[in-house]
Amino acid sequence: MKLEKRSGGGPAEPEEEAVPRGKKPVVVYIMVLFIAAFLLMAWSFASHQRSNTEALGRLQSSVTAMQEVQDLQDQIIALQKELAEAEKRVEELEDEAESRQSEQETKERELEAMDLLYSLQQRYSAKDYTACREILDRMESGGLTEALRDGQPTPDSVTAPRRRFQQLKAAVEAREAEAEEAEQ
Question: Which of 19, 85, 106, 178 has its Cα between 20 and 30 A from that of 148?
Answer without folding.
Answer: 178
